[in-house]
Amino acid sequence: MAMLFWGRGLRNAVTKKAMQGVQLYCTSVVSGRERVNGVDLFYQQTGKGDHAVLLLPGALGSAQTDFGPQLKSLSKDRFTVIGWDPRGYGNSRPPERDFPLDFFERDAKDAVDLMQALRFPKFSLLGWSDGGITALIAAARNPSLVNKMVVWGSNAYVSPQDVKIYNAIRDVSQWSERMRRPMEEVYGAELFIKTWEGWVDGIGQFAQRPEGSICMELLPQISCPSLIIHGEKDPMVPSFHPQYLLKHIKGSRLHLMPEGKHNLHLRFAAKFNKLVEDFLIQ
């Protein structure tokens, strides 16, 4: 199964050559670090629009590995786009990443506090995979700060089926070298293994909570306009998850991409970007 997707929010075989291409076409992207909740959080920013948008990456992800096409191509006149590396991921190290039961809540607070520190009084959220879970929590906890939200490849609870999926990809030695390489370039082989296994254990612990809840109880508190996107060929996120979000987030809408997998925003970047832009400017 690991050959069919780029992990839980892991990127689509981003090679060093491809990343060099990202750096070339993102020449208007500026990088910085902001001290937030005791951690120096790394971020990238591009565009000059009035509408601030925060990109939230997936597990072990970063702005550059997860959102190259969005940093490049989302309208720089309409939007100011900020991508961040959550604590312990990418360039927001130290600290090493850990996965206490509240790690999504911690990421949500870090994300919101980062945007406040960067002086964006209101902003929209684009969250992929784990980043989508973070976005759900951030939107629920901060209704006065969030304009709109887009999530894809995300879930509000962990089912027994999910646990089987996670355990099936625990051993990265079973991954192809093409899939391991990008993460090993970021973390080194040993730390990648340690952090990935920590994530599998971390996400799995929610299965022990009532109904496997990550943030089920928070969904009714989300009041911003919300778009849920789902790739119908996503092997990581069964279709009952976006349906659950649609049912429990008031006024939300669901867009299905028949050929989309977990990395649909990378594989179908132009279509995805237009869908998101149209939603954000409505």
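The above is record 1. Record 2 follows with the same two-line structure.
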Amino acid sequence: MAAINTMEKKLAEYKCDTNEAICMKLVRFPEDVEDDRTTFHPEFSHQVYGDDEVAFGYKGLQIQLFYTAGNLSTLFKVKYSSKVSETFDCVEPDDIEGKIREIIPAGFTCNSDDFISLLEKEANFQPFGTLLHTYTVHSEDAGELTYQIHKVDVNCAGFHDYHKRLQTFLMWFIETASFIDADDDRWDFFLVFEKYNKDGETLYATVGYMTVYNYYVYPDKTRPRVSQMLILPPFQGEGHGAQLLEAVHRFYCSLPKVQDITAEDPSESYVKLRDYVLVKLCQGLPSFTADKLPLGFSADMAKEAQDKLKINKKHARRVYEILRLRATDMSDEDKAREYRLEVKKRLFGPYRKNQREMAKMKKCLRPEELLSHVDQMDTQTQHEELEKSYQVVVEDYRRIIERIATHA
């Protein structure tokens, strides 16, 4: 038994956290390759290396996935200090390289010198598609930086191969990501690029992107649905997500055939970002003025948001709640109570549905069967959960209001 435990301990030394082992870079200059400050790591690796996010068989494992900043030409190298099969007979390491090769497209290099030589071609890289929007962001280190948002379709020359490289980032930064069929012409792509200077030339770096699928709505409309959205880690926290979402929203608002704009299984962070952007867009609409907000969510609000900004009723209701909170003196007990009841009225919807289901159960279930469901429908529990939900929602709303005030 002691020998087995000793063996297990020795083998455990050959386990590596794949989130730490994978080293990624967006390379602009040759010196970036050796500069640890330009390295970032995945948030997730379970889709490639399993739920444990562990690779077995190596010590000092480093998986390099370096990309040129614009065209995303790729360097893929695996480095380690020792391999388990060098010490232990009949013990095989995991196929680290094979798993990566399954998701990165052909055309990558495994040679650092070859990769550095590819940087010379970055001057030839130009953003794909049609320019939609240009904006600037102030950087303490670099001053005013300029960014562009482009709209691209699948037929754009060279984009298909570029997109194959770009979408590999999804596996590392979106928890349940999957690759899309980019050959379907109902996909729209929106990309963000940074303009930067290198040796007197203007170059472009990839910042992030969004994919949108255009669904048919009877009889003659479309419903664009956001499928994927990612701002690459070196650019996160700089406001690019909001710029991208607002530009995309304004683009679809300009199309008469668009019914409304939705999102596929949106994450919590996406919902907060959408709330922020939609509040910015709606706050100037006549039906959302401060004097009308205390009167409640109206049909005029829903209609104006739909007609002018392609915002559906559900999203418009959230916008109304945020703007009403901003306009409400919450230190006034009566006004605060009115606001609280207004929000809870919406939040109570799922609980009201449970009550209707309970009424149906009473008619068709035996007493012993009904008893098993009663605990789930306990009124006191419902009120407690409702209050918790309200507090979470209001805290999220306050953060959005603060952000809008900061960027006013």
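The mean pLDDT is 91.
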